[in-house]
Each structure stands twice: as C-alpha cells, then as structure tokens.
Amino acid sequence: MVQQSFQLYDTTLRDGTQMAGLALTVDDKLAIARSLDALGVGFIEGGWPGAVPKDTEFFRRARTELDLRAALLTAFGATRRPDVAVSQDPQVRALLQAETPVVTLVAKSHTGHVDRALRTTLAENLAMIRSTVQHLVLAGRRVFLDAEHYFDGYVSNREYALEVVRTAAEAGAETVVLCDTNGGSLPEEVKAVVADTIAMTGAAIGIHCHDDTGCAVANTMAAVDAGAVHAQGTAHGYGERCGNANLFTVMANLVLKRGREVIPLERLVELEPTGRVIAEVTGIPRVPAAPYVGTAAFTHKAGLHASALRVDPGLYQHIDPARVGNAMRVLVSDMGGRSSVELKARELGYDVAAGSDAVGRAAARVKELESRGYSFESADASFALLLRAELAGHTPPAPFGVESWQVAVDGDGGAQASMGLRVAGTPRTATGLGREPVHALDAALHQALDPVFPALTGLRLTGHTVRELAGDRTAPPSVRVLLSFRCGDRRWGTVGVDRHATGAALTALLDAVHYVLSDAPERRRDTESLVAAPAG
Amino acid sequence: MVQQSFQLYDTTLRDGTQMAGLALTVDDKLAIARSLDALGVGFIEGGWPGAVPKDTEFFRRARTELDLRAALLTAFGATRRPDVAVSQDPQVRALLQAETPVVTLVAKSHTGHVDRALRTTLAENLAMIRSTVQHLVLAGRRVFLDAEHYFDGYVSNREYALEVVRTAAEAGAETVVLCDTNGGSLPEEVKAVVADTIAMTGAAIGIHCHDDTGCAVANTMAAVDAGAVHAQGTAHGYGERCGNANLFTVMANLVLKRGREVIPLERLVELEPTGRVIAEVTGIPRVPAAPYVGTAAFTHKAGLHASALRVDPGLYQHIDPARVGNAMRVLVSDMGGRSSVELKARELGYDVAAGSDAVGRAAARVKELESRGYSFESADASFALLLRAELAGHTPPAPFGVESWQVAVDGDGGAQASMGLRVAGTPRTATGLGREPVHALDAALHQALDPVFPALTGLRLTGHTVRELAGDRTAPPSVRVLLSFRCGDRRWGTVGVDRHATGAALTALLDAVHYVLSDAPERRRDTESLVAAPAG
Q1: Where does the record place the Pyruvate carboxyltransferase domain (chains A, B) (predicted)?
Q2: Reported pTM
Q3: pLDDT in the model for residue A2
Q4: Of chain B residues 206-235, which have a CB less than 8 A from chain A?
C-alpha cells in the first residue's frame, strides 16, 4: 500500500554534520543530496542558512545545481529571538532567502530550557513559535516544527510541552516533530508520549531520535507504531554524540517489517549502494556490522552456520540481502572448515566438488597461514590464489620475480621506490613515485610490468590497512597488510604478512598482480574490505 | 534494590568471536575474561570446548590461570547428536571436561531447523534436549538452555517452541534463553513472545538478541520489561553479521534507566575503561559514537550546544558521563565559535576570560587552519599550542629546528631516517629506525633531543591516521596526519597537514615535542583520538 502521507526526512546535511570527524564541503553536500534523492527520501534538510556560512552557500548553489526528482529541500533554523519582531530577525530572513519549499524551525518545548538556555518567559517562547510559523506560512513555505527536548520537557511539564505542539499546529505548522534531543529515552516511554500527544493535540506528529541509549531506531519504530507520520534520521546514523537514528535502518525496517512504502519499493535495492557512495563522500569509516548495508551484515564465519547456509541461506539470514542491494558472504578462517572453504570457492566461481581433497588441503593451508598472522577474511584474491594452487596440485610458475627493492622518503615530499626484477627471464629495473612506500612500489611494478602484461593497466590500488601482530614464544612480532584493489568494475583484496609493513605490502601487491595475470574465471562482484579502513 | 537473581551473561568469547575481523589468542581470551569479571558481569561464556581447539585450551588454562571473583565461567555446546546416547557423545564429554560450574546448551526450537539443519524428528530433538540437560545436571552442573531461532520458531510453530522450553525446564535447565538468532525481530514482537512464553511455561526466561534490525538493545530491554531474568550480549556488541546486543549499553540502561542493579553499582564507573581495555586486546577499531563508552558519546561540536553546556552540562547530556567512567568533551571546529574555544580552553586547564580577545583570535585561527585541511578535533596538543600563542600574543621561540630530513625503506625491512637539526644554535645530525617513516623520524628526534631535553624521554607515539584531502580550485591535494601520544599518564594528539604524508607526520611530531617542552599547565586527563584509528 502506498503511503503517500508518510514523511521520510533526512537530516544528514544538518544534524548529521555535528558528528565528530565529519567535515563536508559544499560539493560534498550536493553529492550527498543527489544520492539521497535517488534513493527516494522525501525531505532533505540541507543545513542552517545564516548561521553556518557553508550552508548559506549550499542553498545558493542548490538553486541552480541541484535538480531533485523525488525529495523536497528543507532549510533549518530557529524561531525568532525573544522580544524581536519576526520580520526584523536576520536569521529568519536567511531562512526565507534559502528559497526552499519547506522550512523546519526548532523551538524549545522544555520549560527548563526556555528558562536557562533561552532566558525568556514561557509565554514569549510560545509567541516566538506562533509568529515565526505564521510568518513563514504567509511567505508560502510548508513549515515543520522540531520540538526540541520534547520527551524530557514532557516529563518536566507535560502541559507546556503539549501547548507548544498545539501552538505550532494552530499557527500553520504541517507536522510537529518530537525530538529526543539528549537521546535518553527508551521505546516504551516514546510510544506512550507520542500516543498521548496525538490524542491530546490532534496534530500530525513526527519523531527525531538520538542513539544515546542504543535505541534510536527502536524509538523511531515505536513512535511510528504509535501514530507518527514523519520520521527523521541520518545516513549511517551520523550525528552528534552517539548519532541520530540511522535512516537506512529505519526505512528498511518500515518497508520490510511493517510493509510501509516509505520510499518507492523498487528503490530499496539502492540502499547498500547509497550507503557506500555516501561513505565515500564523507570519508567516515563504514561500520561493517551496520544493519542491512554493512559489509558484514550478511557475512557468516561460524562453520556451523556455513553448513546450514549450504542448505538454505534463509536459515541464518532474516531477509534476502539482495532486497537491499547487499550480498551474502562467507568468511574463510580457522573458525570455518571445509564447508566455509567450499561455499567461498563457489562464491568465487569455482566449481568444487563437495568434500574433495583439494578443499580439505585448502582449508588446512588456511588454518596454517592464519596461525602465522594471515587473515583471508578481506583478501578474496589471495584466497583464490591459494585455492587455485590446491586445485591444480602445485603453485603455477611465476612469469616474473622481484629480486631487490628500496624506498626513500624525504623532506621534498613523497616516496620513491627502486626495484630490481626478472621478467620472463630478463633482468629489469624500475622506479616509482607515490605518497606512501606502498604507492611507490605499486608504481614501480606497473612501470616494469604493464608494457609486458597489458592486463595490469586496469589494476588500481584503492586502500590499505596495517595491523601490528604481537609476537609470542614461537614467532617474533610481525605486520599484516591488507590491500584493496579495483580492476575494471570488480573490487577485491589481498593480504601480506612480514616483519615490516613495507615488506608485507609488497607481498600483498604481488598477490594482486599474480591474481590479475592468472586469468581467473571468477564472476565475483564487489568484495569490499570487511575491516574499517582509513581513506587512502 | 539489589537484584541478586538477575543474570547478566557475556558471550564475547564465544558468540562475539564470530565477528568478521576478530581473532583472539587464548591469552587474549583470558585477559578479556579478567576484565569482564572486574566489571561485575555475572556469567562469562568462555567458548565451545571440543568444537574449537583454542577453546578447549582456554578452559584448560582457565582452571589454574583465571581467578574469577564475581563471574561464573560457562562452557557452551550443543545437545547430543540425534540417535546417539548422551554418554557416548564426545562433544558432551568435552563440555564436562571443561569443568565449569555452568554449562549452556544450544538446541533447536524451530521445527524448520530441526527438519532441514538437524535432519531429525521433532520428538528426537526434544529427547536430545531432555537427556543432555539431565546428564549435565546429574554431573553437578548448573545448566542454561539457549533456544536457537526461538522467535522465528514461535511464529512458525508456537506449540513446539513452547514445548522445547517446557522440556528443558522440566529436565533441570535453570534458565531457558530465547534467542533471536537471525536478528530479525522488533521490540513489540519480542515483548509479546516473552510474556506469552513466561505465562505458558512458568520457566525462568533469558534473552539473546542480534542487531540485524538495529534493535538488539531495545529487544533486550523489552524482554526484561516483560519478565526476562537473564540477558546475554557481548562487549561492544561484537558478533556475527550485525553483532550481538551490546552488553555495555544493556547494563548501563538497566542500571541507569530501570534502576536494576545488574552489576554492583560501584562498578559502573568501570564501564568506559573496560571498553577501552577490551578494544585494545581485540584490536577492533572502537566506534566513537557507541552509547555510554564511545569516545564521542559525550562529545559536543555544535556551537549552540557549547553555549548551553557552559550554563549546565545536563542541558545536552542525558546522564553525567562520570557515572560510566566517561567524560564530556567539546570539539573545536569551524562549527563551534568562541564558546567552543572557551570551553575547550577551560577543559585544558587555561583560565580564560569569557569573551576575551585572545579567545576570539584563537577561534578565527582555528577556522582559517580548518579551511586548509587542519582538524583539531583529535589534536588537543596542537590546539593548546595555538591557544597559547594567541594568549601570549606571539609564537614562543623554538629551542630547536629541523633543517633537513630523509627516510629510506628497503627490502631488508623497516624505515631509516636521517635528519639535520639545529639545537640551541648548534648543528646536529641524528638517525632513527622504525617500522614506518613516522616511527623512524620519531626515533631520530628522540636521539637528537632527549639528551638535551630529558622531559622528552617519557613521550611515546601510540598511533597515527592518515587522511587524503582532495584539492579544489584554490589548493592542491594534501594529506592530514593525526598522531596520538602518551606522556606519563596523559594521552593527547597532534595534527599536521602537508603535500605528503611524511611531511605532515613530521609537522605533527614537532607539535608533540614543542608541547612537552613548553611546560604546559594542563590538568587534562586522557584524550583519545575521536576518529577510529587502525592499531599502530
């Protein structure tokens, strides 16, 4: 059933930007807005014009550069200041100058905040709400009202909180959004307060939650169950302190668990790709365990689960990951066994017989390498090379070898690598420049090998993570490097372990080269690193 | 009110280890167990003896090396296999050989799983439960029964699911734990199912949730509200796919929001330190936004929030962070203004007058540097140097300077730095070795400066992150490096921006040295990086 009246409202570009470590340029904001629009979100809160210069600029450029097809752009701001005529308030003027079809005003609904933060009277606060809402409605804007600190305010003074809602609705606010600003509420309370507020005011009610008790999504669901017709959140749950309600999780839950078409049904498969694109813009490391869109959301490691998944993926997954644009993955580790290796091999496109000796040998080799520090969870290409060697019965001869190498970094900048190789029997030297040693070595390899093996020209290093491994009684400390690559439209990773980071990086680089050169038949789609990796 | 009957149950060392990217040694597991015990957790599920060799070893060593003061150690395993006598089942024998006071058995409670995963009859499954529970009770063990896939099983065949619970309880299982194994449930359903199960069976009921709908914590709270007396979860919500219920969040919610003493009240202040210690053992990057324990959980960036927090921290925090061992932090960024700078300065121990010119100049300098790529959010020491220069009205003269440097990395391993400096007017050279260029430069600085400035001997580099910054029409691409340090018992960070990573790292290293040398009066406690950093 199409719920044309449900308002799915994204505040990534305003509340979300209050997240520690998140800093967006205007270009970033425009890109994110386009991405959210493509997903089918109903409203995009673009920022706080007048208060944040970058946001004033965003709304200015949005007028000519942002062509939204589904979403309505919203400008956020505060009610007029106490004892100032609304037409004289420069911040309100800035709201209108943003020229958005919708404006969202934030107002105090907690008597304590009216007193100590705003330092005005309860009556003046209501007047501020009334006059600002009316002013914007008269100017032709649709108006939403964010009732800040509503749930705490309701506990402190229920009558006044309800009066704030009535005042806003009577002045012309289309929806009054109840905000759990400090994030301290639990679902039971949210449900009761939302139900009472709807019953006592008759207003169209929205919900805006924060995750300080780990219940932002659940609080949002509870509010919708109680009759809220508007839900706010951010991409990936970005936001101040513990973040806002994760809007990806909320929309997937509403569509898949409550049967409410809060975005067009056919757009839900864009959920994971949208999450990926937005994370690339923000540079915030993705949380692998994020519901629905996380790289690990449908990733299985336990051998017992792998055995069951061979029978029926539904045995250990609550939905078909394809519905949200994600995919099932099986991890190969010392925790899995033959079943995991077999599932992984099939995932990579190898037609292996169940219970074959090669699968058993591959599983044993994985366990042995993992005990030395290797980790194949994010290194499908390295695993594929290992598997292929076991299937063939031997390691294929290498068409080239690296015999010596050195990297220098100095005050004039960057890293320079020099390398001695043997390519098809012929000695060669190569050099390369890069930001870090791994990039310089990568460049040197391409310099030496691309002319001989043109398939390598499409191979791009996209990221690296370095992990120190403590030694023990049997082995000295070592370093594990995971590299991620893009080759054509496919992405995969490799792993290397060595005494030092650069040696480990070179091992992983060489695996990538060998993988491309070995003409692999994998039909694997994107495999991203399952460990949160810093950009670059 | 002391709830001696509430069972707070941690499965970090068993279910938690199924998380992608998590690999623990036996030493790691022992360390984590001690940490959980110190926090006051009631039960620690140590692993699956017999099935996972590392876990068999863990229980063996635990007997002599693990001296638990509060918690009871639990061994996890499956009911006997179909059609095998319980005394003949080697896995059950392994459970007993673990010699734990408590054993937790997992059993199927979903008819679909009994049929397709176990491939046995519904009656035999009940017999497996009955005989295995009785066998362990007769051997003197306390027994818990994990009813796997309970919520899906209840929907599929309610009668059978209830029969599983009755069978386990009648056979002697002290608590029957209802598991939302696929994680697809929402709080409303969990509450109804738990309430019905308690009413229909009279058994002591526990709850075990996964976060696939983003509601694991809320589902757990709902179950406890409905009468569950036992709650399972993991540290930081570690676990397969989207993870298990975050036990830190659950226990803090139960104590602070429901007034239930599920751990000794005086231990709650150990929550954040415990989270930090366990994350150091696992090496999994901490999520800054994690409720209660996250580095960003009580971190405020918006200028508006900072203004209010100056008046009363309770205006934008749902609890006093000290109750969970955390602290309020204010971020300095282009989003804050004078209030943020002032709060931060006070946080660092500077007695600045509200509205002073120096604060205004510092705020302007921060905005200008941030537009060039700097980020002071995780770099308190760099910010302190900036602030001090504005307070003094000039940059203090430097006691030394670096005039040239070079770093080389080669196939024999590691990085070697050489440096030319001028120290108190005298030219000096220095060299240093390290895993990465930043470590080698750090070593060279110490070689040159420690003999002259002994205060530097306590300065330790503990981590670094590198972030590429795209250029724009006004500036070429650059790199931002954040370094974290420990000096004595204090931790703080510095930042550097340059065309290349190593140059940026040197800038940040020099800030750290200048910070230590400038004899700062800060009384700041730990400041950790607010951006998830890879180990090392």
Answers
A1: 6-269
A2: 0.80
A3: 36
A4: 211-215, 217-219, 221-222, 225
